[in-house]
C-alpha cells in the first residue's frame, strides 16, 4: 500500500486534521476528522469519501485489512508528530479526514414503510450525550435527529467517538424551531415533550405512530416556549430517589419503548402460531 512520508508539523493536510479535531463547528462542505481504526472502518462501511489517512510510522500494518479506495492519500508520520494533532488523551496510531454525508429532509423521512421516529434536541450541549443518542437512534430504528440552536455539532470529535460510527449513518439536521415544527406538522409527525412531572408514563403513550421526541438541555430541561409546541408530555417513571435521568439515557429508553411498541404490532403469523401452541 503506497504512502507518503511527512516530517513537518506545517504540512497542510496535518494542519487541516488538527483544525477538524479542534471541536469547532464544521463548515458546510468541509471535512471532518476521525481517529482510530474502528471509526475509519465504520466510515468505509458507510461509503464515505476519505481523502486522507494518517498513520504513525510502525503502525502501517493496521491499514492492511481496511481496503482503502485508490483515491485515498496515505501519509506516514512519526508517532509524536501525529499525536500532536490528535484530540484524545490516549491517541491512536491512525486518523483520517472524511467527507461527511450532507443530510436533507428527504433522507430524514426515509423510504421505509415504518412510521417516522425522530429525536429533537433542544440545546443539548454534551457531545458524549449526543454521540450516545446517535448510537441509540440507529440501534432502535429512528429516522433521524434534529438539532435545534444551541445543540452541539454531531462532528465534535467526542460526539463522533461516542456514536461508534452511527454519526456516519443516522441523518441529523440543524434547524430553527420554526422550521422544525413546520416540517414535522407537514409530515404528520406528532411532537411529544419529555418532562419529569405533569406527563404521561411512556408505556401509556402511543409511540407506534409517527412521533418526534423533544429532549431538553442537560441542566435546564425544555424551555416553556418549546414545550408548548408538544401535543403532550411523556415521562419515564423512576421508583428510585432520582429526580431525573441523563438526557442520553432518557432518549435511549424512550427510543427502546417506541421500538418495543412497534414490534408488538409486527408479530409474524409463524410467531403467533407458535405462541398459540405453547
Intertermini distance: 58 Å
Overall 3D form: elongated
Helix fraction? 25-40%
Average of the residue pLDDT scores: 89
Strand percent estimate: 15-25%
- Major sheet attributes: 7 strands, parallel
CATH architecture of the largest domain: 3-Layer(aba) Sandwich
Q: What would CATH call the homologous superfamily of the largest domain?
A: SPOUT methyltransferase, trefoil knot domain
Using the coordinates above, name the CATH class of the largest domain: Alpha Beta
* Number of domain modules: 2
Radius of gyration: 21 Å
Reading the helices and strands in chain order gives EHEHEEHEHEHEHEHEEEHEHH
Give start-end ranges of low-pLDDT stretches: 268-278
**Number of DSSP E strands:** 12
Task: Please list the strands of the largest sheet in the order they lie side by side.
Answer: 8-7-6-11-9-12-10
Describe this entry's structure for a reader:
The chain is built from ten helices and twelve strands. It is α/β, with parallel strands linked by helices and about 280 residues long. It folds into two domains: about 5-100, 60s Ribosomal Protein L30, Chain: A, CATH 3.30.1330.30; about 105-265, 3-Layer(aba) Sandwich (Alpha/beta knot), CATH 3.40.1280.10. It has a seven-stranded parallel β-sheet. A five-stranded mixed β-sheet has the order 1-4-3-5-2, with helices on both faces. Strand 6, helix 5 (about 125-140) and strand 7 form a beta-alpha-beta unit. The longest helix is centred in the last third of the chain and has 18 residues, at about 245-265.
